Structures are given as structure tokens and as C-alpha cells.
Amino acid sequence: MKPLILCLITTLSLAADGVRTEHDVDFLGGGRKEKADLYLPAGPQPGRKHPAVVIIHGGGWAGGEKRAAREINIGTTLALNGYVGMSIDYLLANQDHPGPTWPQNLHDCKTAVRWLRRNAERLQVDPDHIGVIGGSAGGHLAAMVCLTGGALDPPGEGDCRVQCAVDLYGPVLWFEQRDLSMFRQPRADAPELYRQADPRTHIDKEDPPLLILHGTADKTVAVADSEALAAAMKAAGAAFQLEIIPGAPHSFHLQPKQRDLRPLVLGFFDRHLKGGP
Fold it and tell me: C-alpha distances in angstroms, 26 versus 50, 112, 120, 180, 238?
């Protein structure tokens, strides 16, 4: 009986702060081991719908997981403020996957958007108001979900588009400077593949709004990466906001010691997913 009790506690719990969670939800199917955690507002009211946000972890497209500290911070913050948060795992370029993981990693993120729409009634999600947020490699993938529109979608039916995105210090210039493990081949041998994964390739003025956050003390992804993305969006006439946080390092969550970013991020989501001012 004890294993069953432990399983139930792990799968569905009510946190002390009132946030409901569902752990290890199968959103990819097909026997995939990558799962999702849901962060849901406590005390659901009949007939009320919530906007939703997909949360994408970092780790250089090769590591990381959905239940890291930053992702818990973001998911809890969202649920406490009337959102459904969905923190996902996706295919990683590690020893378990010797082949290329691009664009499957992006497909997994887009499948999460589809899954939210397909399960909107049960979760009381507003399917017309879904956003995405990610940090580092997850910031890159969040930007890609936002900027690719209906392109680079996974096979199957269902809308993968989102209404806005938040990119926390995602790599951009790396796609013209480095060889990356998710491609399993050097940039010199596959320049078009690297270009396909560069968010700047897909920008147009009709893209949903993108909030870009980066710290000046980031020693992993240079501030210049976010500045390059912002410059490309400005040139295309696309909607964006770039916020540079003095002294903030890589991997900060919504409450770094340098600045409480919750008002900024929640305000952005409120405007574009709740219709706030």
C-alpha cells in the first residue's frame, strides 16, 4: 500500500501555498519518457478559464529537467496569479540520444501547446490565450515557438501557435559561432540547419510579442545574443521588449536578488493573455 500512497502524492499534490500540481503528465505519447508538470490555480471555479504558459527548461539542449528550481519558481508564480503553468521535458542531446535532436526538441515544445488546447476543458484553460517562457536553451526554444508561427510544426493536427513569449537569456549568436550538440554535425557541414534554428531567421512583423530578459553578469550567454535578437526584431517591425538587468548572472529566475522580475513578467503576460492594460 505504501508505494501506491507515494505514487499518488507524487502525481497530484496540493502545495502549502495553495498551488495544485500534477506531476509527470504524459503529453507526448508513444512511450516517450519525457513528461510534464502542471501548476494549477487552487480553488477552481466552475466556468472560469485560465490562460496557460508552457515552461521550457535550459541545459544547453543536452541537460536540465522540468522540475529544476527556476521552473518551480516560474510555475508556482504563474499558478498563484491565475495561470496554468506546464513545465515540460523534451528530447535532449545526451548519451541516451546519439542522433540529432533538432528539430524534435522544438516539436516537443510545440506539442505541449497542442496538448494544452486538447485538454483545455479539463484544465479550464483558455485555448486562445497561451504563452511560453524559457531560460537559456529553453529561452531559445521559447523564442522559436513564438517566432516560427505555423512553420516547423510537428506532424499531426492541432494549432501550435502562442500569443506571446518570454525569452530568458537564450542563445542567438551561437548559431553563427559554435558547433552545437543537438545537430550532431559541425556548423561548416550544415549551415542551413543552423540557420533554421536561429530565431532571427523566422522574424516578421506579424509575430506575437516577445519579452527578452538578460543579465549583464551572464558569463554563459553574452548579453550581445539578446541584443542581436532585439535588433533583428526591431528591423522587422516586430513587437518586442528588451530588459537588461544590471548585475544579474546566467540562470536567474523571476526573483533574482538584483530585481524582482515578477511584476514585469506577469504584467507582460497579463497584457497579452488576459487583456490587461
Answer: 21, 10, 15, 28, 35
Alpha-carbon gap, residue 47 to 121, rounded angstroms: 10
All three cell numbers of 137, joined, read: 536553451
- Could you give the CA distance from residue 110 to residue 54 in angstroms, rounded to a whole number? 9
pLDDT tens track for 244-254:
999 999 999 99
Domain annotation for the chain: domains and CATH numbers: 15-274 (3.40.50.1820)
Q: Distance between CA 111 and CA 108 in Å, rounded?
A: 5
pLDDT at 105: 98
Whats the size of the chain, residue-wise? 277
Q: How far is CA 88 from CA 54, 58, 105, 195, 201, in A?
A: 7, 11, 11, 25, 25
Confidence of residue 276 (pLDDT cuts 50, 70, 90): low
H-helix or E-strand spanning residue 137: helix 137-147
Question: pLDDT digits over 162-199, tens only?
Answer: 999 999 999 999 999 999 999 999 999 999 999 999 99
The residue with greater pLDDT, 45 or 12, is 45
Please list, in sequence order, all residues whose beta carbon lies within 8 angstroms of the beta carbon of residue 168, skipping any fewer than 6 positions away: 133, 134, 135, 136, 138, 139, 213, 214, 252
At 8, list the grid cell: 499518488
What is the SS3 assignment for 214?
Answer: strand
